[in-house]
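Cross-check.
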Amino acid sequence: MDIYEIIEQYLKEGKRGILATVIYRAGSAPRDVGAKMLVGEDGKIYGTIGGGRLEADACSEAKCMMNKGEPRIMNVRMDSSAVADDGMLCGGNVDVLLEPVLQKYAGVYKKIGEMLQEDARGIVVTKFGSGVFTKTLIDEDAAITGDILPEKEVEELGNYLSEKRPYISDGIVVEPLRSPSVLYIFGAGHVSQFLARIAEIVDFHVVIIDDREEFANRERFPDADEIIVDDFHAVFDRLSFTGKEYVTIVTRGHQYDAYVLEEALRRRTKYVGMIGSRRKVKIVLDHMRKIGFDEETVAGVHAPIGLSIHAETPQEIAVSIVAELIAVRGMK
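Predicted model, tokenized:
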């Protein structure tokens, strides 16, 4: 379930929660603008805004404001000394919008989820301060869900439909709806370095995943939108799958490839591709059949990964993979 489906379920069950959204990032903070996390009154957490001190502070603040009805912006400044003290992997400055999930806005959250699934454009306008909390969703036809805004203001806000970053002012956050092509790259080796760089150029939202900090870091992946250092067996609990994600499996060994592939096939995705020789691919895919995946599911794996262009170098392999990703993205 994605985060808006979870919000819908919470509200149906009469539960409260706080939605945390990264609305500003500078430096090498781990997750990009738009990353979301729901903190439930039952203590459960869905999604991630980056882990470490940032996420811990956001969770703590969310629990403190659980019974309050007004959002706030939490500013986290992570300089080098703070990062070192906390043992974090990344520094930087981050602003997080914390907002109570209220029953009165159930229709807004439901509509946002539907629009993201449909790749529809829109903007979410959140106003708060001095006891005020309003939330408005405006689609590209200027139709409104939630609190009504003056016609002139709606017209002016329409200018943000094509923006990629939120607009933040005193007491207002204007968040353009984005449904990016999320690319999960499992493995942070040489191929992944070129794969991330090329995929970023053609507008994929690149997430690097590896269990080795010395490989998965900003120095090696300066343009990645997100870098997650975690065990391959645990990281899937931190990732969102809505059926539109792209998964590329380029880890350092077939045992890791096999595990990641198994977990990916248990989830809704747009694309799953795995690197490897034809012999290795056959062994892994036969294993998927033996553990219960049907033939249609196994046949849907792009393996060996990438278009057949006689690629040999890491750079060429990356080109072949991204070409295949573009081809799949263009299919309706």
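The longest helix spans residues 314-329. The radius of gyration is 21 Å. Passed to J.P. for a second look.
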